[in-house]
Design a protein that fits this description.
It is a single chain. By secondary structure, this protein is an alpha+beta fold. The protein folds into 2 domains: 102 residues, no CATH class; 135 residues, no CATH class. The chain is built from 2 helices and 20 strands. The chain has a 3-stranded antiparallel β-sheet, with no helix packed on it. The protein has a 3-stranded antiparallel β-sheet with strand order 12-13-14, with no helix packed on it. The longest helix is centred in the C-terminal third of the chain and has 35 residues. The radius of gyration is 27 Å and the shape is elongated.
Length: 262
């Protein structure tokens, strides 16, 4: 019976939907995390009576045909790249992006990754790095005798050396933007990789046209809304239950049919 297969595709789709929602909820406190959304499309149809066909020699047209669908499929789990709230931390090397753009990160294999997570640290050489020790690009090195570090909204990194009150600029942070940022590939560790779908990155200075500005001492929070996720979870659960009910009803109908043949 067709209904068994159709309902099974619905159950598999909602199972995947719950997996996506659970990942969003699990990352509610992940810095710079962007929530995902499962998107679905209906499958092919069997046209028993095709709409618009001629039904008589007088030229009558069938106004509504008979189309039997075969279920649902998942077509994507795109990320919603909306801005997350900024939380103040007061830490010198915590940097939040307000607006468009990603930090460039040099990976150990030489590839370039991108992130919205600005919770940076210093390595043994004084370089600005991620929590995994990957170097931020362009490379910023803080001297050992720096008594304070200042990063303005344009990404200019300045220090005050011990014994002085004069600030000296030692570097310039840059951001990268993409034509289709939802086309970036997630790598884990809050990192993304460029893909043909995302387009090539465009590098620029923060606070210029098309680029966001930087906020020192802040971190961008995940853009996950707990109420929305719980609401979506309940809807997915109910859809799963209804598809399971269809399978149960179809099974009872098949059972009744087989009993007639005894």
């Amino acid at each position: 019976m067709r209904a068994l297969h159709t309902a099974a595709t619905g159950m598999m789709a909602q199972e995947l939907n719950v997996q996506v929602i659970s990942n969003n909820i699990a990352n509610m406190r992940t810095t710079g995390y962007k929530r995902q959304r499962a998107e679905f499309q209906d499958l092919l149809y069997e046209h028993v009576n095709r709409v618009g066909t001629q039904t008589s020699s007088q030229g009558n047209i069938l106004p509504a045909g008979i189309e039997l669908g075969s279920g649902v499929k998942t077509v994507g789990t795109p990320r919603l790249m909306s801005q997350g709230e900024l939380a103040q931390t007061g830490k010198d090397y915590d940097i939040a992006i307000r607006g468009e753009g990603f930090f460039k990160i040099l990976m150990p294999d030489g590839r370039t990754a991108y992130t919205r997570d600005g919770s940076f640290e210093l390595d043994q050489q004084g370089r600005l790095v991620t929590a995994q020790g990957n170097v931020v690009q362009p490379q910023i090195t803080i001297p050992a005798n720096a008594s304070s570090v200042s990063i303005n909204s344009q990404g200019q990194v300045s220090i005050t050396q011990q014994g002085t009150t004069t600030q000296t600029q030692i570097g310039q942070l840059q951001l990268s933007i993409f034509v289709n940022k939802a086309g970036l590939q997630s790598m884990g560790d809050n990192l993304y990789m460029e893909t043909p779908a995302s387009g090539t990155p465009q590098d620029g200075t923060p606070s210029t046209d098309g680029f966001g500005n930087l906020q020192q001492g802040y971190l961008e929070q995940a853009n996950v809304e707990s109420v929305s996720e719980i609401s979506d979870l309940i809807a997915a659960q109910r859809a799963y239950e209804m598809n399971a009910k269809v399978i149960s009803a179809a099974d009872q109908m098949l059972s009744a049919t087989s009993n007639l043949m005894r």
